[in-house]
Sequence to fold (228 residues):
Amino acid sequence: MGTENKEKISRAVIACPLFSGLQKKELEEIIQIADLKHISGGQLLFSEGDPANYFYITATGKLRIYKLSSSGREQTLMTPKPGTSIGEAALFADGAYPAYAEAQSDAELVSIEKNRFLELLKSRPRLAVNMIALLSQRLKNFAHKIEQLSLMGVVPRLAEYIIQNSDGKTEFRLEISKADLASLLGTVPETLSRAFAKLKAGGYISETGNAINIDDPEGLREIASSYD
Fold:
């Protein structure tokens, strides 16, 4: 493994919540069983139903995790940021990936082979606890997403997304396309455009290119907590 690749793997592993709280020696053990995988924009990392022989940690670039309905409609589940692990739940159960993962730009991912990781898991109880916590949080997030899609209108969904991704700031840059954002929020681009227009007309937000300015944070939080 080259020095540059090892450094990229190390940064991604250290940033990954799955490995938080591990000792330096334990992190090094994980780095030793990891490889760096390069994929091009538009390339599938895995498809739903593929054997889950690896799980991944995003290092650089943009990815999208999505499901495909029988009618061909795509529903975006997440757009993982660097340091996010993906596919780890598929190492268990039936051992198949439950969704599609596609690179939206050239990307680099840390890949960890299933059997080597499971062997390490046996001797590292802290890692096992972290995995349980991470999967529990993912389950909670997906339960909330189901609630959103079932009960919340598109405007509060959009407001909640803006609040969550602004990290307490009054401006943030939208890192995904509005088409992908529409899919993530369970709607279509036209409906999303109307939701943006309503928030701007109400004085809650304004836009400058890809930058979204939060002009009324408190009002936006109230919208995000409503269902209409």
The first helix runs from residue 3 to 15. Residues 52 and 92 are 9 Å apart (CA to CA). The mean pLDDT is 86. The chain is about 45% helix and 20% strand.
